Amino acid sequence: MPAAGAAGVSLIAIAHGIGDVAPLLEVQRRVTGEAMRPPSPCHLKLWREGEAIGAGWVRRSHGGWQWLDEVGVPDDPFAELYRVTIEGPSGQVGFEVATPAFSCALAELPAVSGDEIRLTVATVGPRAVSHDISATLMI
Fold first, then answer.
1. The domain containing residue 24 runs over which residues?
2. pLDDT tens string for the chain (139 positions)?
3. Same domain, 72 and 121
Protein backbone atom coordinates (compact mmCIF):
# COMPACT_ATOMS: atom_id res chain seq x y z
CA MET A 1 0.00 0.00 0.00
CA PRO A 2 1.40 3.41 -0.92
CA ALA A 3 2.05 6.09 1.71
CA ALA A 4 -0.48 8.88 2.29
CA GLY A 5 1.75 11.34 0.39
CA ALA A 6 2.11 9.11 -2.67
CA ALA A 7 -0.59 10.83 -4.72
CA GLY A 8 0.70 11.63 -8.18
CA VAL A 9 3.20 8.77 -8.43
CA SER A 10 2.79 5.75 -10.67
CA LEU A 11 2.69 2.19 -9.41
CA ILE A 12 3.56 -0.87 -11.48
CA ALA A 13 1.99 -4.24 -10.70
CA ILE A 14 3.42 -7.38 -12.26
CA ALA A 15 1.47 -10.64 -12.28
CA HIS A 16 3.93 -13.36 -11.33
CA GLY A 17 2.99 -16.87 -10.24
CA ILE A 18 4.42 -20.38 -10.17
CA GLY A 19 5.18 -21.53 -13.68
CA ASP A 20 4.78 -18.08 -15.27
CA VAL A 21 7.23 -17.32 -18.04
CA ALA A 22 8.35 -14.03 -19.50
CA PRO A 23 7.00 -11.72 -20.65
CA LEU A 24 4.90 -11.20 -17.51
CA LEU A 25 1.73 -9.10 -17.56
CA GLU A 26 2.44 -5.62 -16.24
CA VAL A 27 -0.01 -2.83 -15.42
CA GLN A 28 0.85 0.76 -14.52
CA ARG A 29 -1.57 3.04 -12.67
CA ARG A 30 -1.27 6.57 -11.32
CA VAL A 31 -2.04 6.99 -7.60
CA THR A 32 -4.69 9.72 -7.33
CA GLY A 33 -5.33 9.69 -3.58
CA GLU A 34 -9.07 9.54 -4.24
CA ALA A 35 -9.66 7.20 -1.30
CA MET A 36 -8.26 9.87 1.05
CA ARG A 37 -11.09 12.29 0.23
CA PRO A 38 -14.08 12.48 2.56
CA PRO A 39 -17.50 12.01 0.95
CA SER A 40 -18.82 15.20 -0.62
CA PRO A 41 -21.85 16.96 0.87
CA CYS A 42 -25.21 16.48 -0.86
CA HIS A 43 -28.68 18.07 -1.22
CA LEU A 44 -27.40 21.66 -1.33
CA LYS A 45 -30.16 24.28 -1.16
CA LEU A 46 -29.81 28.09 -1.45
CA TRP A 47 -32.29 30.80 -0.59
CA ARG A 48 -32.53 34.52 0.07
CA GLU A 49 -33.55 35.71 3.55
CA GLY A 50 -34.20 39.46 3.36
CA GLU A 51 -30.75 41.09 3.27
CA ALA A 52 -28.88 37.76 3.49
CA ILE A 53 -28.56 34.44 1.71
CA GLY A 54 -28.83 31.07 3.37
CA ALA A 55 -27.58 27.63 2.41
CA GLY A 56 -28.03 24.16 3.81
CA TRP A 57 -26.76 20.72 2.85
CA VAL A 58 -26.53 17.17 4.15
CA ARG A 59 -23.23 15.77 5.41
CA ARG A 60 -22.15 12.29 4.47
CA SER A 61 -20.07 10.02 6.68
CA HIS A 62 -17.24 7.61 5.91
CA GLY A 63 -18.90 5.05 8.17
CA GLY A 64 -22.51 5.52 7.10
CA TRP A 65 -22.71 3.22 4.11
CA GLN A 66 -24.64 0.35 5.71
CA TRP A 67 -27.30 2.47 7.53
CA LEU A 68 -28.10 -0.43 9.86
CA ASP A 69 -30.44 1.36 12.27
CA GLU A 70 -32.17 3.50 9.60
CA VAL A 71 -31.93 6.46 11.99
CA GLY A 72 -28.69 8.31 11.21
CA VAL A 73 -25.13 7.93 10.12
CA PRO A 74 -22.24 7.58 12.57
CA ASP A 75 -19.93 10.51 13.11
CA ASP A 76 -16.57 10.57 11.39
CA PRO A 77 -13.52 10.39 13.66
CA PHE A 78 -12.50 13.91 12.57
CA ALA A 79 -14.12 17.30 13.17
CA GLU A 80 -16.88 18.39 10.81
CA LEU A 81 -15.61 21.27 8.65
CA TYR A 82 -16.83 22.69 5.34
CA ARG A 83 -15.25 25.08 2.85
CA VAL A 84 -17.83 27.46 1.34
CA THR A 85 -16.89 29.50 -1.73
CA ILE A 86 -19.10 32.14 -3.32
CA GLU A 87 -18.34 33.38 -6.83
CA GLY A 88 -19.98 36.39 -8.44
CA PRO A 89 -19.30 39.00 -11.11
CA SER A 90 -17.05 40.93 -8.68
CA GLY A 91 -14.84 38.01 -7.65
CA GLN A 92 -14.82 35.27 -5.06
CA VAL A 93 -15.05 35.00 -1.25
CA GLY A 94 -14.42 31.99 0.97
CA PHE A 95 -15.56 30.83 4.39
CA GLU A 96 -15.14 27.78 6.62
CA VAL A 97 -18.05 26.55 8.76
CA ALA A 98 -18.40 23.69 11.24
CA THR A 99 -22.07 22.89 10.57
CA PRO A 100 -23.98 21.94 7.39
CA ALA A 101 -25.53 25.41 7.17
CA PHE A 102 -24.36 28.85 6.13
CA SER A 103 -25.67 32.40 5.97
CA CYS A 104 -24.10 35.58 4.71
CA ALA A 105 -25.18 39.22 4.42
CA LEU A 106 -25.75 40.44 0.87
CA ALA A 107 -23.18 43.18 1.52
CA GLU A 108 -20.45 40.49 1.88
CA LEU A 109 -21.16 38.94 -1.53
CA PRO A 110 -19.11 39.60 -4.68
CA ALA A 111 -22.33 40.60 -6.43
CA VAL A 112 -25.21 43.08 -6.28
CA SER A 113 -28.96 42.65 -6.51
CA GLY A 114 -29.88 41.15 -9.88
CA ASP A 115 -26.58 39.26 -10.23
CA GLU A 116 -26.20 35.49 -10.11
CA ILE A 117 -23.87 33.88 -7.58
CA ARG A 118 -22.50 30.37 -7.43
CA LEU A 119 -22.06 28.82 -3.98
CA THR A 120 -19.79 25.78 -3.68
CA VAL A 121 -19.39 23.53 -0.63
CA ALA A 122 -16.70 20.89 0.05
CA THR A 123 -15.98 18.79 3.14
CA VAL A 124 -12.53 19.36 4.64
CA GLY A 125 -11.08 16.06 5.83
CA PRO A 126 -7.88 15.30 7.73
CA ARG A 127 -5.93 14.37 4.57
CA ALA A 128 -7.88 15.84 1.65
CA VAL A 129 -10.87 17.92 0.61
CA SER A 130 -13.94 16.27 -0.91
CA HIS A 131 -15.27 16.92 -4.35
CA ASP A 132 -17.52 19.94 -4.18
CA ILE A 133 -21.21 20.48 -4.74
CA SER A 134 -22.56 23.78 -6.04
CA ALA A 135 -25.73 25.69 -6.79
CA THR A 136 -26.57 29.09 -8.22
CA LEU A 137 -28.89 31.81 -6.95
CA MET A 138 -30.07 35.09 -8.45
CA ILE A 139 -29.86 37.71 -5.70
1. 1-34
2. 556 566 678 888 888 888 888 888 889 988 887 888 888 999 999 999 999 999 999 988 766 566 666 666 666 677 889 999 999 999 999 999 999 999 999 999 999 989 999 999 999 988 889 999 999 999 9
3. yes
